[in-house]
């Protein structure tokens, strides 16, 4: 897939990359550009609670390159989905983990895009059918975070 030109990607791939990229850019301190980014910002506030629990676990990691972040992320994603179960709690926990990795390194668009690519590629390679059956990432993101936030704790506790 050509992640450097999102306009050439099929719609679900564009949506998946866009939502992850927006989330990571906001987490890295970039101001929202669109109303979608603003909605993501609202969701970020809700995710701070989970962030506070996860960050201390990975803070001792030494990350020197974006490649190291992606290698760690690949391992975490493989472990998270190793039992074959998928749900929105797991997906958004992975995105949150990517956010924490991005925050551990000095901000660069290359690093954000590398982590966004890593997450999007994994989800699309392994879970694209599930994502399509459940309305895609953008639609479900807002339904999940703005409509049923309390369920994230139940979902993420099961992995």
TrEMBL record:
Pfam families found in the cross-reference section:
Bcl-2 (PF00452)
Which keywords does this chain's UniProt record carry? Apoptosis
Gene3D superfamilies, per the entry? Blc2-like (1.10.437.10)
Record's signal peptide: none
User: Which BP terms from GO are recorded?
Assistant: apoptotic process; regulation of apoptotic process
The keyword Zinc appears for this protein: no
Keyword Transport among record annotations: no
Residue ranges of domain Bcl-2 Bcl-2 homology region 1-3 in the record: 40-137
The record's listing under PROSITE patterns reads: BCL2_FAMILY (PS50062)
Q: What PANTHER family is this protein classified in?
A: BCL-2 BCL-2 HOMOLOGY REGION 1-3 DOMAIN-CONTAINING PROTEIN, BCL-2 RELATED
Similarity-based family: Belongs to the Bcl-2 family.
Identify this protein by name. Bcl-2 Bcl-2 homology region 1-3 domain-containing protein
């Amino acid at each position: 897939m050509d992640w450097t030109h999102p306009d050439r990607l099929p719609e679900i791939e564009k949506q998946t990359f866009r939502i992850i990229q927006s989330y990571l850019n906001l987490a890295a301190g970039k101001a929202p550009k669109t109303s979608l980014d603003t909605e993501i910002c609202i969701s970020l506030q809700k995710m701070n609670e989970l962030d506070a629990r996860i960050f201390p676990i990975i803070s001792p990691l030494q990350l020197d390159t974006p490649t190291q972040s992606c290698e760690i992320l690949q391992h975490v994603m493989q472990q998270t989905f190793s039992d074959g179960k998928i749900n929105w709690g797991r997906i958004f926990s992975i995105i949150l983990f990517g956010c924490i990795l991005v925050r551990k390194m000095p901000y660069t668009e290359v690093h954000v895009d590398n982590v966004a690519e890593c997450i999007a590629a994994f989800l699309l390679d392994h879970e694209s059918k599930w994502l399509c059956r459940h309305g895609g990432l953008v639609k479900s993101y807002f339904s999940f975070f703005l409509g049923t936030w309390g369920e994230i704790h139940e979902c993420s506790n099961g992995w």
